[in-house]
Amino acid sequence: MADQAPVSPNTEMGIADTSLAIDNAGEGTRFPPRGQPIITGINRIGLWSLYIKEVRRFLKVHTQTIWGPAVTTLLFLIIFTVALGRGGREVLGAPFATFVAPGLIVMGMMQNAFANSSFSLLSGKIQGTIIDLLMPPLSEGELMTGIIAAAVTRAILVGGTVALAMVLWPSIHLGVEHWWAVIWFGLMGAVMLSILGLATSIWAEKFDHNAAITNFVIAPLSLLSGTFYTIENLHGVFQAVSRANPFFYVISGFRYGFLGQSDMGDAAHVAMAGLGLLVLNLVMGIVTYRVLKSGWKLKD
Question: Are residues 19 and 57 in the same domain?
């Protein structure tokens, strides 16, 4: 056998120091144990980065995501005003155009909140970039919060754009009677559809699935929610169906903030509806969080 080179005392000491460093790392005196998270609490930087990423995503195509929905909503207003608002017709003591305007604003907000959050995870699954959202050091709650916050931001921008355009419309008066109702029901509606959109994004495997929810769930609930009429004009059975529609409470409560009148009832009924929407959003949020945490259709 070949002669082995002698090991110097310094080399032996270096090996010993390295072993000690490894032992200390295992004990957590210098480094946390393997598998223990380094970031504790809320990852504010990661959450903010995700939020900005989602906001920039829809702002890059603002013609499609902001101005397009505003134009579509104005077309709804023009068509229904011309068709049903002639002859000085009034609903809840307000001209028909003024009655319809708040419902169209919040309907546009909800639909665009759904469109934004329902695209976030689905696009990653289809394009194969879902790992970019799952691998960063973000908890399921932070991932969910960032996506929902960006969707609510888009809803607010769309609602503000539509409201500004309607203020300039000659036959519409958008005076606010109760700011709390405008803010609360607008926020509750946007959050509700953001959560539903996120759940759809988790479930869907292709864009056709997303479109099916939009066409067969979101659109009917929006159009049958009392946006263009009061439910007192409906048969008793259809009134009961309308009162089971959460969109009805969002639109009626939002309209109450502008007109001071609602087909839900007095201020106490409006407040109860606002509380009910909060409970509904909490339940939907918890269910969606549990599904997201399970990794269903995301990590399979």
Answer: no
* Within a domain: 289: yes
Domain count, the chain: 2
β-partners of residue 94 are 91
pTM of the shown model:
0.84
C-alpha angle 183-172-101 in degrees, rounded to nearest 5? 45
* Cβ atoms of residues 273 and 252 within 8 Å: yes
The pLDDT, as a whole number, for residue 30 is 67
| Cα-Cα-Cα-Cα dihedral sign, residues 54, 191, 96, 257 | negative
Q: In this predicted model, what pLDDT tens digit does every residue of 142-188 receive, in sequence order? A: 999 999 999 999 999 999 999 998 888 777 888 899 999 999 999 99
Kindly list the distances between the CA atom of residue 26 and the CA atoms of 12, 18, 39, 173, in Å, as whole numbers in the listed order: 21, 12, 18, 69
Enumerate residues 6+ apart whose C-beta is below 8 A from 126.
206, 207
Token pair for 146 = 């960032």
CA gap 200, 120 in Å, rounded: 10
Partners of residue 90 on adjacent β-strands:
95
Based on the fold, state whether residues 162 and 102 are members of the same structural domain: yes
Domain contains 2: no
Q: Which domain holds residue 277?
A: 42-294
Under 8 Å CB-to-CB from 173, ≥6 apart: which residues? 94, 95, 98
